[in-house]
Specification:
The protein has 261 residues and is α/β, with parallel strands linked by helices. It has a single domain, classed as Metallo-beta-lactamase, Chain A (4-Layer Sandwich). It has 9 helices and 14 strands. Strand 10, helix 5 and strand 11 form a beta-alpha-beta unit. Helix 8 packs across helix 9.
């Protein structure tokens, strides 16, 4: 069976664990190595069972624990060429086995990991699709200003979709952030709004996705209940019912309990 666990989510740090056949990978390590190991233990995941770390992009809330964690666990770190170059130049790859993501993805035996480009103000950001040993697929798309055709194609047909629902547009523009930052967040290279996220969900549900996890919520410009309501309302417009046609969860800053399916 496949296992998905959001360890941390949001501007304070992001990390996801995915497992199958007794092995696990991490997508991002945006908290300290100590905190990530503590969260793994809380979910009864032995850090020794982590076999690789995959990095979506170089922003600190996704990489702050990568170097120490990868070094202590002695596992490879996979990133796109642009992200890897940044990690090397900034000293985040010191004493790590940093590898460029191959075009055709990475075969880890129990899991196969492919990647796709996202639209973010980073060197070369990406999302990931993970095919588990039992045939289940988990797809992750966060830190993107828009859902591009590449992103939609990667998410389509996944059994579980972890997707960004970063901000409510009204809250963002009424909030205290400086205007240039507001524009950056709302831009096509920023973060996905609740409305943009919700608009994608019915399309994915019709392609076979039955589990959605909303992630990377802004603590300043969003509320979990608001993100959830926006998603449920949009899915309801297409006659899709929570609990019958799909399952929906919202990842808290300190993560979400493991999902096994």
């Amino acid at each position: 069976m496949a296992r998905f666990c959001s360890l941390y989510s949001g501007s304070s740090g992001n990390s996801v664990a995915i497992g199958c056949g007794g092995k696990y990978i991490l997508i991002d390590a945006g908290q300290s190595a100590k905190k990530i190991k503590e969260r793994l233990s809380q979910e009864d995941i032995d850090p020794a069972d982590i076999c690789a770390i995959f990095v979506t992009h170089e922003h600190s809330d996704h990489i702050s624990g990568v170097r120490v964690l990868a070094s202590s666990l002695k596992v490879p770190v996979y990133a796109t060429e642009g992200t890897a170059t940044y990690l090397e130049n900034a000293g985040h790859a010191r004493n790590t086995d940093l590898r460029i993501l191959p075009r055709d993805g990475v075969d880890l035996g129990e899991m196969g990991v492919t990647f796709f480009p996202t639209s973010h103000d980073a060197a070369e950001s990406c999302g990931f699709s993970v095919r588990c040993c039992d045939g289940r697929t988990i797809a992750l798309a966060t830190d993107t200003g828009v859902i591009t055709p590449d992103i939609h194609a990667a998410l389509e047909g996944a059994d579980l979709v972890y997707i960004e629902s970063n901000h409510d547009e009204s809250m963002l523009f009424a909030g205290r952030y400086p205007y240039p930052l507001k524009k950056r967040i709302a831009s096509g290279k920023g973060h996905l709004s609740n409305d943009a996220c919700a608009a994608e969900l019915p399309l994915l549900a019709r392609s076979g996705a039955t589990r959605f996890v909303l992630g990377h919520l802004s603590a300043e410009n969003n509320m979990p209940l608001l993100a959830r309501q926006t998603a449920v309302c949009e899915l309801g417009k297409y006659g899709l019912r929570e609990g019958a046609d799909y399952l929906l969860s919202v990842a808290a800053p300190d993560g979400l309990k493991s999902m096994v399916f």
